[in-house]
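User: Study the shape:
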Amino acid sequence: MNQNCNIPDHETDVEFLCTNEQCKDFRVFCFKCLQNEKHNTHIKDVQKIKDFGRQQINKSDEDLIFDLEKMIDHIYQLFFTLKEELKFGCQISEEELNGLNLNQLNDLLCSKIKFRKEKQSLISMISKSAEYMIETIYTGLNEFSQQQFDRPVKKVKQEMKTLKYELIDTIQDEQINSFAFNQDASLMVGGYESSKIQVFEFKKGQLKMIQQLNFHKKSIYCQYFMKKSDGFLSGSCDKTISICYLNDNQKWDIKQRLEGHQGGINCLLMNRNEDLLISSSDDMLIKFWIKDNDLWECSQTIGGHSSFVSSISLNTTENQLVSCSKDSQILIHQYDQEQKMWMVFQIIKIKQWGRRLCFINDQILVFQPEKREQMHIYQLDSIDKYFVKTKEVIVGVGSERKKNRGCFWFFPQQYVQQKQIVLNKNGCCVNLIKKVENDEFATIQSIDFQTKVIFGRMTDDGEYLITWDDRSGSIQIRKYVD
């Protein structure tokens, strides 16, 4: 830290700080201060400034977090027990009911009415207590936030209150599992649960269907629109990949069908040159396809996961591929130039599996664990060249009546470089997360669809966000507003 000590005759840079709660001296000081025995009575609370930013969580904080987790688990267990009691309280079989005399039946009815009144009273009490607890937590979070330094994340939240995606159109349609746009967003393809594909003209946020295709036997899971040519890919539950092109009659047709996976195709992506296609599947495998005489053929198949592969992403240099699965692993695959093969470079063990991740650049990747209100940030360590988790970003999870249902398939995570925004579907929410200076991230908008069954995509320039959800039963088009 290139700032002189505030004691005039020292004339040297400060390099230490003190975190002792009872300390009355100035907390930032130089080596000469230390030699003069300042802070000598609590030297254990003195540390170098350069170590303060990456300070690890201490034992006291660990104990507090452990106690909090115990309380949460205990509350959850009590709520689960109460839920079961409310669900099955005063239940009686038809056989038992037929065996009751009139007095017993009357007593049963009185008991049920009393139980109903007590149940309503109990729920009301719990609701008030829950509201108080939520308010207390929010108060605490706000106090913590106010005590933080004026960091870039705080600035971006203040400066970007008006930045959001506004709904401009709604179109009723059947379930669409995937969307893909061409480079200038003049065309969009939609892959339907019913197995059909529809090609739309997309102009100023308005959709016009121009062709329907039936190249698959089962549901479409994922799509990719090529940027260098008039072509797109679709992956299906029928275990095949269709490569489509625009023929001489300006109609979309199938050029090649790729087979080889033994499960539904979950993800498709290509490199910038569009001479490498990567697919992942329910069969736990990732396949690499290359062009040979204008036709695609599989050049390599890699494993490593013990469950379906839910997401894949290439880094900027395109020499690393990241993947995640229900097996609670994130795998970093690296291309070996000498052997001309992709190989597992790093295995990251995670506590909670997730369906979505993506590279931001060569140094950063983001991962969304299942049923969590935080998106995890992993950064490349400059020394050992491995990715390590460095921070978490608060994201919305939304609300839904079917509380126990997990997140839903598809809707890949997407980083829009032009707007520096991460599109992150989590639970019932679609989160827009801004990357700001110093590699910080801030959630600028969370759209609660009140259902987990949401699918969507952004245009490559980030101007439009398109979604389909089963609650509205419609395509929703949102436009970027600054």
About this structure: Residues 157-481 form a domain with the Methylamine Dehydrogenase; Chain H fold (CATH 2.130.10.10). The chain has two domains: 16-52, 157-481. The two ends are 37 Å apart (CA to CA).
